[in-house]
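Q: Sequence in, structure out?
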Amino acid sequence: MNKQLWAIGLFALAIAALTGWSDSGVLLNFVMMALYAALLAQAWNILGGFGGQFSFGHALFFGTGAYIQAIAQMQGGINAWLALPMAVAGSALVGLFVGGLSFRYGLKGSYFALVTLAFAEVFRILALSVPFTGAGVGLMLPLRESLGNMQFGSRKGYVFLILALVTLALLVSWWLRNSRFGAWLQAVRDNEDAARAIGVNPFTVKMGAIALSGGFMGAAGAFYVQVFQYIDPGIAYGSVTSVEALVAAIVGGIGTIWGPVLGALVLHVLADLTRNLFGQLPGINMVIYGTVLVLIVMFLPRGIAGLGQSVVDLWKRSGGRHGQ
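A: Exactly. Output:
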């Protein structure tokens, strides 16, 4: 069996064992939120890292999943466990819609990034305007704690749920690194014209990537609703979620299996430390994310996951200059 699969299994077992052993609410909440951030980053990484299609508006898929999860329960009377796959599917369909409009006309790079940002803003305005989303007031799920309602009495249940989603995303990332579809996707990322010349259909491949990415982002949105039992247009489609997803992936290392997890962990630790030092200073998290992103781009272009290779490259360059 591939070593990466063993690593994914050991990671899941270690987090599950820690969760089962610990009764500390602080620790469990930290693990839950770190895994949640990792899921956001993994979702972005599928499209932005493996596919090379950078998005500034991934909150579009997050918010869609969150609203479907809430509306299905509150207005459709659908069980939360059944609403979850609906949220995933709905977000994936939104991804196909945006991808169909964007990729059909060859949008990529900054143009594609701006299109996703624009769609997120359009959906935010729509959510503010229509009654079934609660408009500006938002939606609040009724408190009905039980396993059947996906409302757990302690953080342990939520940690196990988000761990399952993160593990699934890790397995998908492993598949993208080792499958034919993943090879096609990375070929399109590296050189779309060359990929087309060897028989790869860039449009189909990118559509598959955006559907997968949107689906996982929708799952993160559904999870958020179940944990906090509230969603409004600002939370659903605001820029904070989009920034958190892309920064964690870039800091950890885009196009890698473990990069998004590492990036999410580092950013979450920094955010908690800053919160303890400076209190609830408005916007401090965004300042931290921006600073860390600049430093990573300058000194670790491959991210934390590529630290070893970056050190080797630096040593080679230093050796070359010394030799001269």
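The first strand starts at residue 139 and ends at 140.
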